[in-house]
Amino acid sequence: MLLLGAVSTFSLVVPFGSVEAQTQIPAVTVDAPVERARPAAVASSRRAATRTSRANRRSSAQPAAPTQSASSNGATGERANGPVRGFVATRSGTATKTDTPLIETPQSVSVVTTDQVRNQGAVSIGEALRYTAGVSGDVNGGSDTRFGALQIRGFDTTMSGLYVDGLRIPSSNYVHFNGLDPYGAERLEVLKGPSSAMYGGSGTGGILNYVTKLPTAQQFGEVSISGGSFNRYQGQFDMGGAANKEGTVLWRLTGVVRDGQTQVDFTKDNRVFIAPAVTFKPNEDTTITLLANYQRDRAGWGLQFLPASGTVWPNNGRTIPVSFFAGVPSFNAFNTEIATAGYQLSHNFTDNITFRQNLRYAYQHNEEKTFYGTGYTDEAAGQLGRFGSYSNSYINSFAVDNQLQGKFNTGILSHTTLVGLDYRNTTFRDTAFAVTTSAPEINVFNPVYSYDWALGGMYDNKGIKQSQVGLYAQDQIKLGRLSFQLGGRQDFVTTQLDTNLPPTDTSTSKDASAFTGRAAVMYNFDNGIAPYFSYSESFLPQLATSPSGQMLDPETGVQYEVGVKYQPLGWNALFTFAAFDLTRDNVAVYVPATTFYEQIGQVKSRGIELEGSMSLADGWNLRAAYAYIDAMVTQDPVNVGKAPVTVPLNRASLWSDYTLQNGMLAGLQFGGGVRYVGATWGDDANTFKVGSATVLDALLAYTRDNWRLSLNVTNLADTRYVAACYGLSGCMYAEGRKAIGKLTYRW
After folding, report:
1. What is the dihedral of CA 165, 167, 170, 176, to 10 degrees?
2. Cα angle 328, 330, 333; round to 5
3. Which keywords accompany this UniProt record (predicted)?
4. pTM over 0.70
5. DSSP state letter for 619
6. Out of 150, 342, 502, 571, which could bridge 360 as a Cys pair, Cβ 3.0 to 4.6 Å?
């Protein structure tokens, strides 16, 4: 849960001789390989000193192990985009685009590491975020094969919040990239609050940065097979190393193959994912990494849009089963193909000046075959109306970000200055047809399924093109332990909409521009306490249309945040508390009944966040989070003073696991977690509430030599509860009990 502005993290380096360290994959690095020794007569001491100096330089795109500073825990050799041992990251580049310790970052950032994903058994991005303060990645429940409804600080950021290696991957009404497999990520980082000063068009609530696994300098490999609930079977592998003996070419290959279903009847969840990466180091100053991934999902439609009567409360004593399928079995698909390709380039001109260029092309195609509920036609009898649709959606996005970073002093002030120019071009196309069946209704308590269907008329045929150019600058200024961060950005955006629905064929365009800024101040005390204050703005041109077919106005946002971070000396740890006041204007809200977005005016979100993580040397991991969010509609034609749907006032979680280090049972790991989600309003008018819920998760694992056998059970008690409602006929169940056993071999 990750909705407010506090992050607390706590970790300790695992000794090399511990059970965990013995099975740890070698640290990933894309640094320049060490040059072979030259004869003293050839290599002068001056050139050797220059190489050493340059090897110690750090860039945010391809940084090497950072040097230890008084306020950072660098004993792990952690880099901003590199692997982390345990649950705790101490550095990040998401907030600043520079390799900066989190204790010196005056904004809330939460990092989910691969070890946390593994220990908690998360198999989607949404599940990986369950123990993060102020964030929810599965608002629509565990059967959302669309992977929509990413919520940060009370705001839905599905269409604007996903970034891959710092480049935005836009989404639309139907096409979401949030389904990317988490096994391909080195870490998942959530930057909370407006961030347009660095990223241009981005959501008010924050962004999620999917940091891709990079090639390795050491040979390693991992292969896993798993199986469990919902007839789920999966194989996955991750391997890499140096491709030549000089170490100037590095590689990595990651993949997943899955055959499975979901808790909803007739709904598949099959996947193929492959991600190759190659790093070239032509010299000590230049690094280029080529990255790509391809993902093919063959899934069913998981969102049933059930009525509140029978889910939130009983319907004459009856409850709709969690496995209920509202559709037509022969017409049920949510098939998706995702492909991205790009590179990360870093070049050091001098010891203090670095140029970086990140480029990525992203493509997604979605084919949707669905019938879903539209509300009761006869509530007493349990007769549910249905709507059928067939659609094809395509999205293509090209993005490039150019950065020039310099480090210098002006008198008593030290500066890390970044200037950048980025460009993004996105095209989206959607066509949709109504579909009918001989049985337009179905009984939710005694379903009898029809298998016939007929394609009807087209009701959507639109194309959207959007281009954005942004020029930005940032200065991180230090005066002893006092630091300032100043940033600003100017964006220029053009959006064009083409609609072709006979007998009309229309084309409209909208230009927008905005300047957004960010300012912050922070003080790092000797004892590890670091209070800060920050101000930030957001600007988000919409890639969506209203039910009337009009293009939406850009959203804007402003946030004030005050917080305290604490990193105890001698501990590789970080604790954070934050309080924020966030205002979002021209709010775009998805309306499931129309499958479009509508702008409702203004929403304010105020709250606090607490978060803590640790990984102790004796094998103990802990992660705790709490978020209090008071969100309210402050400008709207109808619902002023009401709370937005799906946003709980309170959300809390606690996870702990322990690995025995000695004795006959050394390597045995056991743990579990508890997640609490408070009550939410079920409709915009706040006429009914969706009840709160508490669920338990569990882990049992054993590691011996290079083998690891594990069992993860989520929702251990099989608690039945509704994840969210968007109205009386738009409710989604949360996922019930799921058990997955996995066998892993590492070398």
Report:
1. 0
2. 85
3. Cell outer membrane, Ion transport, Iron, Iron transport, Membrane, Receptor, Signal, TonB box, Transmembrane, Transmembrane beta strand, Transport
4. yes
5. S
6. 342
Cα 158 to the center of its chain, rounded Å = 10
Tokens 């994840």, residue located: 723
Q: For residue 618, what pLDDT is reported?
A: 84
- Tell the residue number behind the tokens 């990140």, with chain if given: 358
d(CA 663, CA 13): 21
Query: Strand 572-585 to strand 602-615: parallel, antiparallel, or no bridges (unpaired)?
Result: antiparallel
Name the pairing type of β-strands 167-168 and 100-101: unpaired
Bigger pLDDT: 148 vs 410? 410
Q: Which residues pair with 565 in a beta bridge?
A: 530, 576
Residue 252's alpha-carbon distances to 26, 29, 243, 534, in angstroms, are 13, 11, 10, 38
Residues in contact with 424: Cβ distance below 8 Å, sequence separation at least 6, in sequence order: 167, 168, 170, 200, 201, 397, 398, 399, 400, 466, 467, 468
Find out whether 176 and 157 touch, Cβ atoms under 8 Å: no
What is the 8-class DSSP label of residue 561?
E
pLDDT at 225 over 50: yes
- The DSSP code for 617 is T
- Phi, psi dihedral angles at 52 (to 5 degrees): -65, -45
58 by Cβ neighbours in 10 Å (0-12 / 13-18 / 19+) ranks as buried
Classify the C-alpha dihedral 150-141-81-193 as positive or negative. positive
Both tokens assigned to 698: 């569990």
Query: Rounded to whole angstroms, how far apart are CA atoms 686 and 680?
Result: 9
The confidence score (pLDDT) of residue 551 equals 77
Average pLDDT over residues 611-626: 92
Let me know the angle formed at the C-alpha of 132 by 363 and 126, rounded to the nearest 5 degrees. Answer: 35
Given strand 135-136, what is the order of strands in its sheet?
135-136, 151-152, 155-156
Phi, psi for residue 54 in degrees, rounded to 5: -70, -35
Using the structure block, give the residue that is written with the tokens 């990525």: 360
Rounded to whole angstroms, how far apart are CA atoms 730 and 682? Answer: 9
- Find, among 187, 177, 176, 44, the residue nearest to 128 by Cα: 187
Instruction: Evaluate if residue 24 carries a pLDDT over 70.
Output: no
Distance between the two ends of the chain, CA-based, in angstroms?
34
Rounded to an integer, what distance in angstroms lies between the CA atom of residue 381 and that of residue 387?
19
Task: Give, in order, the Cα–Cα distances in Å from 204 to each of 152, 153, 175, 488, 685.
Answer: 9, 9, 20, 16, 23
What percentage of the chain has pLDDT greater than the value 70? 88
Residue 622, helix vs strand vs coil: strand
Which amino acid, one-letter code, is at 264?
A: V
Cα gap 135→132, rounded to integer Å: 6
Question: Do the beta carbons of residue 271 and residue 19 sit within 8 Å?
Answer: no
What does the alpha-carbon distance between residue 579 and residue 289 come to, in Å, rounded to a whole number? 38
Residue showing tokens 């959607």 = 430
CA distance 1 to 135: 4
Ordered DSSP codes for 665-723:
TTTEEEEEEEEEE--EESSTT--SEEPPEEEEEEEEEEEETTEEEEEEEESTT----EE
**Among 365, 372, 373, residue whose Cα is nearest residue 391:** 365
Task: Determine the 3-state secondary structure of 628 from DSSP.
Answer: strand
* Structure letter (DSSP) for residue 76: G
DSSP per residue, 285-319: TEEEEEEEEEEEEEE------B-SBTTTB-BTTB-
Residue 456: other Cβ atoms inside 10 A: 13
